[in-house]
Design brief:
By secondary structure, the protein is α+β, with helices and mostly antiparallel strands. It has nine helices and eleven strands. A hairpin with a 5-residue loop joins strand 10 and strand 11. Helix 1 packs antiparallel against helix 8.
Length: 352
């Protein structure tokens, strides 16, 4: 009759060795992965925020320069006279000095054009957003338009013309933003990352490819009224994107973004290598544990079989383990003594 051990010492010993060995390995892998993930996330946030801060600083400096120029000219006596003839030399000087200004003009409180740097006839600007903002006393009016001359995005900037506490009119310039567009559009973050800029209404000021309104863009929507925010979203093509959005000094929204897959590629590669190493280690541990557990339990199983044989009258089996000096050797010698005792008793019972 075969000996049935069930869930014996070998599987128990093997399982114990695997748990004791693999648990710390798994814990080490998890802790390393989490640490690397946190470090990489911090680096990605710092890289995106740094790029956004740099571009936002550049945009703010560009707007500040125009705002100082407009305020300086709006404070001149001939400009405050709201006389087109007196204003024309000043408006021409603005366009001549600032080469990217294609139009400098003034608007009366009723919305009618007073002075211009060019020879075009006066126009009505009372329905324009930049006029309404400035005539209401805001420090600056702004509106993104498509230039009829270049077909590219342009910005109209305006300031009120004050005399004491009364707004006499509005001074405005139409300025090309090709320098801003080029600088922002050429900003690269890896292979898939880029930067874009939109105004308060979501109109594109600078973007590598888009020209339509980005008011519904996930990063623009998510930022809302917050000054700055890191976020992740899925774009229309189903790609996961990580982005950093912030408001510029004058309310425009600047976004630096990069595909999630590329941004976290170093972590994926490192984790893949770690998993390969972990898999090799696990395989080695399993083989070593199996060999060790088998080596430890084989003599125990053999001694168990010998003991069972002795109980059934088989007293001839050799017990090689008696030469061992460990606990198994002690057990083998005890079984050997037991066999000798049984054999002696059998011999006595068999003597006439």
């Amino acid at each position: 009759m075969a000996l049935r051990l069930g869930f014996g010492i070998f599987p128990k010993l093997l399982l114990t060795m695997l748990v004791v060995t693999l648990t710390p390995l798994g814990a080490i892998w998890y802790l390393d992965y989490r640490t690397e993930s946190e470090n990489l996330s911090s680096q990605i946030e710092q890289r995106l925020s740094s790029q956004a801060d740099t571009m936002a600083g550049y945009v703010d400096a560009w707007v500040d320069m125009h705002l100082r120029m407009l305020r300086q000219n709006a404070a001149l006596e001939d400009m405050a006279a709201m006389d087109g003839k007196k204003q024309k030399p000043l408006l021409r000087a603005i366009a001549a000095e600032y080469k990217w200004v294609y139009l400098a003009f003034t608007i009366a409180p009723d919305g009618n054009n007073v002075g211009r740097n060019d020879e075009e006839p006066p126009r009505f600007y009372g329905d324009r957003g930049y006029f309404k903002q400035a005539i209401d006393g805001r420090q600056m009016g702004q509106e993104v338009v498509i230039s009829r001359t270049t077909g590219q995005p342009a910005v109209i900037l305006s300031v009120p013309i004050w005399r004491l506490d009364k707004v006499l009119g509005v001074l405005a310039v139409g300025t090309s933003i090709s320098d801003v567009t080029t600088t922002i559009a050429n900003a690269k973050i890896g292979q898939t990352g880029f930067v874009f800029l939109v105004d308060e209404q979501g109109k594109v000021i600078a973007h590598p490819t888009a020209r339509e309104s980005l008011k519904a863009h996930p990063a623009v929507v998510a930022l809302g009224g917050e000054p700055r925010k890191q976020l992740a979203y899925t774009d229309a093509q189903g790609k996961h994107v990580i982005a950093f959005a912030e408001k510029t000094k004058y309310g425009w929204t600047l976004v630096a973004q990069q595909d999630y897959e590329e941004a976290y590629q170093p972590l994926a590669q490192a984790n893949g290598n770690a998993l390969i190493l972990l898999g090799v280690t696990v395989l080695f541990v399993i083989l070593a544990s199996y060999a060790l557990a088998s080596g430890l339990t084989r003599p125990i199983r053999r001694l168990t079989q010998i003991s069972d044989g002795i109980s059934r009258g088989n007293l001839a089996a050799a017990i090689a383990e008696t030469r061992r000096s460990d606990e198994i050797g002690s057990l083998a010698r005890a079984i050997e003594r037991l066999r000798a005792s049984v054999k002696l008793a059998v011999d006595r019972l068999g003597t006439p």
